[in-house]
Fold this sequence. Notes:
Chain A is α+β, with helices and mostly antiparallel strands.
Amino acid sequence: MTAVARTGMREGFVSCEACGLLSRPVCAEEPGECPRCGAELEFRRRDAIQRTWALIIAAAICYIPANLLPVMRATSLTGEEPDTIMSGVVILYETGTWYLALILLIASVIIPLAKLASLAYLLITVQRGSVRNNRERTRLYRILEIIGRWSMVDVFVATFVVALIQLKPLMSVAPEPGVLFFSAVVILTIIAAESFDPRLIWDSSQGKQETNE
Amino acid sequence: MTENADLANVPEAMHVPKKRSRVPVVWIVPIVAALVGVGIVVQKYLNEGPTIRITFLSAEGIEAEKTLIKFKDVEIGKVMHVNLTDNHTKILVTAKMEKSAEGMLDNDARFWLVKPQVSLSGVSGLSTILSGNQIGFEPGTSKEKRRDFVALEAPPPIMRDRPGREFVLRADTLGSLGLGSPVYYRRLDVGDVIAFNLAKDGRSMDIRIFVNAPHDKFVTPDTRFWEASGIDASLGADGLSLRTASVTALISGGISFETPSSGPAAEAAPNTAFTLFKDRTTALAPPQKDIRRFVLRFRESVRGLSVGAPVQFLGMTIGEVTDVGLEYKGEAFRPRVEIATYSYRFMEHLDKKALAMQKAQTLGERMDVLGRLVVDKGLRAQLRTGSLVSGQLFVAVDYFPDAPKAKIDMTQDPPEFPVVQGDLADLEEKVKNIVAKIDTVPVEEIGKELKKTLETLNRTLARVEGETLPEAKKTLEDLRRAVTAAERVLASTDNTLLGPDAPAQQELRDALKEIARAARGIGVLADYLERNPETLLRGKNKENP
C-alpha cells in the first residue's frame, strides 16, 4: 500500500463504535448520536489519551500498596502469617516449586508492570506523533487487551482460598487490603487499555509515508 | 465516482447538544487512588506503636517476628529482633508494640516469658504449648514513660489488679511451703504464698502471702497463722498425735489462719507482719501471761525429759518444762529443771466457784496457799514416765503425804519446788533391794555342804563296786551251769519219746501194724459171712472152698 491512508475522519464520516454504522457527523465538534442505535458518536474515543493517562497513574499508585501490603493472612495453630505477593513468590521458590514461583511472578508482578509500561509507551509515542512501528504498536495494543484480564486469576485464587480454608481453629485464611489494591491495579489497567484508542496510532501518519512498510 | 455517490447517501447523525467539562471526570480515579494510598500510609504511621527493648537472661523460646507480647491474652506487641547485648551476657529483644499499648509502657511495667508450667498447685501457660512461648506483660502504675525494660525471671506470682492484700509471715524455717502454696481459711483456699526470702540477718524466713478479696477482711491484727503443711506427727509424753491437712496441702504444704473471735474486728493493714506458728495449737494458745517459774532439783537421771514436756497437776496440764540443765551443788552435779506454770491453764480446770475464789486472791496469797499445800499436804513434784514406748518423762505435781518435810522459799527467784523420787527411781530402788537380799544368801557354805554329800555318795558307790559285784558274778555263773544241765535233760527226753529210733515210737508202729492186720481179718470174715450167712448157724462147711 503506497497510497496515503484514507480515514473516515478525514473524509468527514464517523462510524458508530457500537453498531458500526457509518454516518455523517452533525458537526466536527459534536458528531451527535448514531441514527441507528443511538450510541454517542465519536471520531476518536473522547479524551482517550487523558483518560488512559489518568487510569494508568491510578493503577501505578495502586501497584505500590498491592505489592507492599499483605494479600492474605494465614492463621494456624502456630501463629499468624501475613503474606505479600513477593513473599508468596519467595516461599514457593524456597520450597522448590520454582515453576509455580515463576508463574506467580509473571502473572502477578511482571504482567501488570508490563501493561503499565506498554500503555505508557503507546501514549507517549502517540502524543509525540511518532510514525514508526505503527503495526508493532498496534499488535502490542492487541496483546495488552487479551492478556490484561488474566491477571484477575490471582484475585480469584485469593478469593477461593479465603472462602475454602476456614478450618477454625486449626487454620484459616483471611483477606488483607493488598488484594483489594491488586484487583484495583488489574481493573484499572483493563479499563485503561479499553479507553485507549488504537486509531490514534495511525492518525499521526496522516499525510505521511508509512515508514514501516 | 460511485464511491462519492455512496458516501452522499450516508445518513446524518442526530444532533444532541451536551455540555462537557473541560477536564475529564476520569482524573478523579488517580486522585482517589492517591488519596487512599496516602491515607493508608498515614494510618500506618499513626498506628505505629512504640518500639521497646526488653533484656532477657536467655532467649529460650523467643523467636524474632513470631513471639507475641500479650496482656490479658490480647496481643499488644510482637518481637522483631533477638540480639545479644553489647557485653554478650544477656539477650536484647526488640519488640514492636501496638499503638494502644503505648499508654501502658510506664516505668514499672513488667515483662516475663510465659512458658507452660506444671506444678503441684496447678497448670499454667498451657496454650503456649501449641502457639509457642509468649511474653507476658503487666502495666505499671507510674506515670513515667519508659522504652527499655528488664524482664522478670519468672512470671509474677500475682497481678497488680488482683484484689486482695499481701501479708508477711515470719517463720523459723520455710517448712514444706513453696511458691504457690495455698493459704486456707477454714479449709477454704483463699490465697497463696507469693514469695519468700531469708530475713536480713539470716535467722528467719519472711514469707509473703496474698489473701484474695473478699477473704482478706478476715485477717485482723489478731489473726494467727500456722503451717497446715503435710502430716504433723509428734511423739511426746502425750503419745503419738497425728494431724493432716487437705490433700493439696499434704503434698505442697499450706498455711492456715484463724482469727480469735474475741479480737478486734478491724482489718489488718497490707504488709502487716505476723508470726507463722508451727501448728494450730500453739497458734491459737492464748497469750502466755501470769507465768510462775520454779526450779526442780532432782536426784535421779532426767533422761527422757525434754523442754516442752508438760507439767501436770493431778493429771491436768498446768505448765511446761522450760529448761533442762545441770547444776553444781553440794559437791556434785545435779540435774536442774526449770518449769513454767501458767495460771490460765490452771484456771481452765477450776470450777466456777473455785475460779471466783482464785480470782479474788492476789498473787502473793496464791503463793501462800501453795506453800501451805507443800508443807501440810506434801505437794511435791515428781518425774513420771509419760509413755512406756518412747520413755518420755513429764513432771507431775501430786500429793505425797509420806514425803519428808519440805517447804518453798518464795524469796528465791525462781523458787525451788520440793521433789520426790520418781516412779523410775523407785523401781530402781526396789531392784537394788532385791539384789542386796540376794547378796546375803550364804552361797559358799551351801557349796561346801553339797561337796561333802557328794563325797559320801562316792564312797558308798566304791564299796558297792568292790564287794557286791564279784558275788553277783559267781551267782550268775552257777545259774548258767544249772541252765545247761536242764538243757541236757530236755534233749534226752526228746530222744526217748520223739526221735525216729526211739523205742516208744517202734512199739507204737508195731501195735498199729497188728491192728491193721486184725482189721483185714475182720474184713475177710465179713465177706465170708455175707456169702455164707448159714455158717453163723451151722459152722464152716468143709467141702466149700
